[in-house]
Design a protein that fits this description.
341 residues, alpha/beta, TIM Barrel
Length: 341
């Protein structure tokens, strides 16, 4: 079974319902150094553009990208059996009111897919009665398969105490946490001026910081069963993993007491590819060797590029790795983590 565990989705009502759209834009525009606008395209459809930082476009949402019939046609072309739906990077700006709307509309979209699609709930990651009640409802009543979060919010990255009560509740529910990259890390002045640097490296830097803070903190000591899945191969975390686990202290310069860190990276952290083609064959092989095939999940970031969904699985199938590792990456790992049975 092939599972694309990173298919982006937004409700059509975001583009057609003036009240929902205005609320969405208002929440984004209330954030520092961030601007969101909506514009009408030549065919009458709506495009939403988010600038982060202001003046630097970082996210683009096109109304026609999220049509169910088009999604299913493209899934069939790519021989994708099932898809896991997520929001395309706007998690950090969603208040509870918007989350409730999106969760219910997502559940409706999933029902209409007739078993082809699953989805993750979106809820602000703070330990309030209302937030926890919505998460419970989204999972237990709407049938969503986990929680999607951003790498960081107003209070910092997810290792911060502000989020611990919420994550304790998630852990008790035995559901996975998917962590999506943000357009830029918390500190971004040195990378903001160049489009490709900001859009690509910025997202990777954000994920590497997020994972590192999670495993170096006491998060998994307190919540040892929590499973967190990071996008973009954890920002290319395979390039840094061994460096962060030194065997030689260098006359006391480095901490070599890394057994707990290594265990957390192997048992608690998982890496979603996001798109196979941009990484390329050599990087993917190295990532699988360093991170482990059981920790990697296939995803395409569709509909950013259609070909990432339709041709991405072929990239994995052509890798010179064990067949069982290909099957794990292309479906079995996602099925296990997201309970897609």
């Amino acid at each position: 079974m092939k599972i694309d565990a990173n298919v982006y989705w937004l409700p059509d009502e975001l583009f057609t319902n003036k009240k929902i759209l205005e609320h969405f834009l208002k929440m984004i525009n209330s954030s520092d150094d961030t601007k969101a606008t909506a514009s009408e395209q030549g065919d009458g459809s709506i495009k939403i553009t988010i600038e982060k930082p202001t003046g630097q476009p970082s996210l683009d949402y096109f109304q026609n990208d999220y049509d169910l019939d088009h999604q299913l046609v493209d899934m069939n072309e790519g021989h994708i059996d099932k898809a896991v739906l997520k929001l395309p990077g706007c998690q950090e700006w969603m208040d509870l009111e918007l989350c409730k709307i999106f969760n219910r509309l997502l559940a409706k979209h999933i029902r209409q897919s007739k078993g082809r699609m699953f989805g993750l709930a979106v809820v602000p990651p703070y330990n309030t009665k209302e937030n926890l009640a919505e998460l419970d409802y989204a999972v237990n009543s709407l049938g969503l398969n986990g929680i999607q979060l951003s790498t960081h919010y107003q209070c910092g990255y997810l290792d911060q105490p502000a989020y611990r009560g919420f994550l304790k509740h998630v852990d008790a529910m035995h559901i996975p946490v998917y962590v999506h990259h943000t357009p830029v890390p918390i500190e971004y002045n040195s990378i903001k001026d160049y489009e490709n640097l900001r859009r690509s490296y910025g997202r990777c830097e954000d994920q590497i910081i997020a994972i590192s803070r999670e495993v170096y903190s006491n998060l998994f000591k307190e919540l040892p069963d929590l499973k967190i899945i990071h996008s973009m191969l954890g920002g290319g975390f395979f390039t840094y993993k061994n460096m962060l686990l030194p065997h030689d202290s260098g006359n006391g310069r480095f901490d070599t007491n890394n057994d707990a860190i290594r265990d957390r990276l192997e048992q608690n952290i998982f890496y979603e590819i996001s798109h196979a083609q941009p990484w390329g064959e050599e990087n993917l092989k190295i990532a699988i060797k360093v991170l482990g095939a059981k920790n990697i999940i296939y995803g395409s970031s569709y509909p950013v590029k259609k070909i990432w969904m339709t041709k991405g699985p072929t990239v994995i199938k052509k890798l010179n790795i064990k067949q069982e590792d290909k099957e794990a990456i292309l479906g079995n790992n996602a099925a296990c983590l997201y309970h897609l049975y």
